[in-house]
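HUMAN: Mind sharing a backbone?

ASSISTANT:
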Amino acid sequence: MGEPQSIAISMEIGIHNTTVALTVALSVLESTEVAIPAAVYSFLMYVLATAFGYLVAGRTRTQVSS
């Protein structure tokens, strides 16, 4: 598997896990207390995934230009 696929999979898994964690906490466990860490992780994951995406996209553009 190449680097672009590895990056895409790692980002998708991180974002997917936030949705799963919130779904399990709220639907299965019916606990908002358990959902709080999942919500914090979700927020941080979206922010960090976006920053990482911009970082990787900039690096990829630089490599292609060279």
Summary: The CA atoms of residues 18 and 40 lie 9 Å apart. The radius of gyration is 16 Å. The mean pLDDT is 82. DSSP finds two helices and no strands in the chain.
